[in-house]
Amino acid sequence: MALNKKYWKSVEELKGSSVVETLTKNEFVSDIPTEDFLGDKETLETSSTTRRDFLKYVGFTTAAASLAACEGPVVKSIPYVVKPNDIMPGIADWYATSVADGFDFANVLIKTREGRPIQIMPNKEAGGTTSARVQAVVLSLYDEQLRLKEPTKKGAAISWVDADKEILEKLNSLKEANTQVVLLSGTMASPSTSKVVEDFIAAYPNAKHVIYDAISEDAAVDAFEAVYGRRALPNYSLQNAETIVSFGADFLGDFHGGFEKAYVAGRKPETGKMSYHVQVESNMSLTGANADKRLIAKPSDVVFSLLNLYQELSGKSVSLQATPIDAEIKKLAKALRKAGSKGVVMTGINDKNAQLIALEINTLLGSEILDTSNTLNIRQGSFEKVQEVVSDMKAGKVGGILTINTDPSYTLPNAAEFTEALSKVDLKVALSVENNETVNAMEYALPTTHFLESWGDTQFTESGYGLVQPTIQPLFKTRQLQDVLLKWSGSTEDYYDYLKSFWTTNILDGSSWNKALHNGFYTKNINASGNLKSTSIAISTVVSALKESIKTSAMELNLYTKTGLGDGKQANNPWLQEFPDPITRTSWDNYLTMSMADARELGFSNPVKDNGAINGDYAKVSVNGVSAVVPVMVQPGQAKGSVGLALGFGKTFGLKEEMKVGVNAYPLYSGGQNIQYNVTIDKVAGTHKFACTQVQKTIAGRHDILKVVSLKDYNTVAPKDHKNGWNKPAYVSYDHKEVEAKTIDLWEEHNRDMGHHFNLSIDLTSCTGCGACVVACHAENNVPVVGKDEVRVGRDMHWLRIDRYYSSEVETREDAKELGLSTAATYQALETEAENPEVTFQPMMCQHCNHAPCETVCPVAATTHGRQGQNQMTYNRCVGTRYCANNCPYRVRRFNWFKYADNNEFDFNMNNEYGKMVLNPDVVVRARGVMEKCSMCIQKTQATILTAKKEGRPVNTDEFETACSAACTAGAMVFGDVNNKEDEVTALAEDKRAYHVLDYLQTKPNVVYQVKVVNTNEA
Questions:
Q1: What are the φ and ψ backbone dihedral angles of 427, each rounded to 5 degrees?
Q2: Residue ranges of the domains in the chain?
Q3: What pLDDT band is residue 537 in, cutting at 50, 70 and 90?
Q4: 152-216+381-519: what fold?
Q5: What are 644-666's pLDDT values in tens digits?
Q6: Backbone angles phi, psi at 931, to 5 degrees
Q7: Which residues form the 4Fe-4S ferredoxin-type domain (predicted)?
Q8: pLDDT at 82
Q9: Phi, psi at residue 100, to the nearest 5°?
Q10: What CA–CA distance (Å, rounded) separates 930 from 29?
């Protein structure tokens, strides 16, 4: 049967807070200031027209329209005098390319309009995936604030010719003196660029290439190299796994680049089988939130539990420390033995010995899930070698340094030491797309092209190659990085010719260059011998070394990266700053996550204000003599005795004032270790104002928002069974009888059999909550960024949100009373559940109800229903009464309070000419004072219909798509025409897992959800 849960979003809801109760009844916490427009009470009383008569005769809508100044601006367009041959006005072009910025790596498709890249989508033919960051990276192309626009020397403009001449003179001088020159770059994962660097080093034998990744995974790379002889990361075929055990590896987030596609492929309940996933961690991560079972332990205990698991599986006694989860570890060992070669263990602990233990466990299992053949070629940095460079610079051994799109002056734990050591280096050159602290500290700052303006290639896996091609002419006086290095190496060859020649000789094996360029990728057959052979390691020495590295302390820190901002490269990207964190639902900030027990003990809290805003206290966090003052967020699921803090925030150099948010946690990242011991927490004065949406727009507590079933019940219990079914239909009382809600209706049905009828299916089992769909919707539909202050009071404009629900076994307080629990005992039971709650994600957008409650209350018919099933908005008719929002049970409509474009109060991408180049011309930029919401991408559905009509054919099966469905890496969102019986969505709409949110209201949505199935390991 369906799992009996109470779903809640915040701890305040568990307490039954009166503030939350009020907020659940109010879509908007601020009213339109009609008094400012109509006059005060005295003015109205002396007026010949009373307020009542005024509203009666001219209508409230007119007042609202005048107040909101709804009339949109007139924008004049000038047509081409001579149309370019390769551009068709009004028609989108798509180009296959690759993203490789040192932290994110993806094969993608770029949508361009009139020569402007405006959106990124995964190249699914290449197996490409996109995260929220990859979706948003297109905006960095138009970042006028940070993009380097011309070469400079000591801050003054210099020509490329003069820069080349001066730098070449210094390079040759250093070469003659045999003085060390360092090329410092992030992971480029580019075979041709590696060859270019080799050519540069051949021309300057005194040079060396050092790779530095801000977020270090060098322990995993070092361990893999020690065992398998190749400097790479192991790959994981999670689609074939039966049991997955992760020790702090956020593999649905940023660990090794993410494995959400393979993970979801192995969790298809319709096959009758799903992988069993157990997560052992301290912080509540995206991966932990999706686990079938989540075990929480402080960081030191996570390491000990990994060793304990090794002991259980190997039978070797390693005299380990007991942990609170040892009983569960024994169960895990049993599950892994049962899975055998279909089991796998992963760890995100950035310690070489911990990674070696994980590899040894997988060897004991004979794991086929660990792929040592098609390895990953990302995250190649070495923290140790970077520290050697800093030491050599301080000692005066480095004569020249060339930094390539990296920012150690911000990201190194000893950043100040690095920057100070630059004063002892003669030649300091920064080759960079954007300005940053490191660029500012260099003598020469040379602007390189953005990847959307560049040629290039990638190799993310041993067999998978990608090509990078320009989608727009360079916006500024930039030069391709590879062209710079080729020129300085003495070559006269253009990089495009170099690239084509390199691929023809080394990669294509006779295949067509043009075909590879068109497809954006090329797959090469890897060594037929299969997986690499392993080398035995002295495991007893490894165990001893790992045990010695654990410094158990009263409070421990786990540093991590947020799903939105990552390592901080895109800190000036407003789409990502406003993107709510999937776990905390907080944007525009990082914070110290702390357990409820520790917060109580140390005196920290997150009070909710009556407008839905959340506040927090400040804590001084001290590690290894370094301190930072950070706001505290009380986080259900955080291990007691541990705190979490996100890296990538606190960046200030060159950023707009609105973007200077959060605290820089890199100084605490000692040794590149994500676990830090001997942490002290002190409460300091002050109140922090969070921009958090977790108690805004909530529909928690409503009937059947979510439906969850165990895999065992899914396979054995009838879903519609009135008593025990896990997908029971809604029942209502009619004529003193309980009948199915769908049999009672206020409206007559319309004939929807003709034409198209769109449905969107969302599989809650496959949805990981990553948020790529949120940013894709933002880009496709010109959704404005409103800033931290507006998000704080519930005025964010996201058309699509991902609700995060925690769940408790006690469904209602009434149930608790029936069990005889007192009020105190009830709260204690719920709070205990809050220490490690289960998590479910639910994308929520306009449900496009066939019997839409919004449509019946709009006084000006601005919101109406289309024949194709879409609930439509006529913006120039809407006057902002907000009746529709108040009548929407799903809370998915957004009131456009302000003018967000061309307004210095909202100085984001819509407030400058470059930023506006990313706008989609198919979607209007809304004027203030209107309601906005998901349109089910009507511009995309109509374009598909028109394309088919132009080509004289019917729309192909599964040809329709929305921005969110196209962006969904996990395939959780499927869009299509239910009148086409061959479309995938048609079968999904009738599937036994299909249900509608709040179906008892009989709004009859065109968005259908699939019941979430969890593997409780009972099947």
A1: -110, 120
A2: 152-216+381-519, 218-376, 553-692, 729-800+845-1014
A3: confident
A4: Rossmann fold (3.40.50)
A5: 999 999 999 989 888 999 999 99
A6: -85, 140
A7: 758-788, 837-868, 869-898
A8: 60
A9: -150, 90
A10: 17
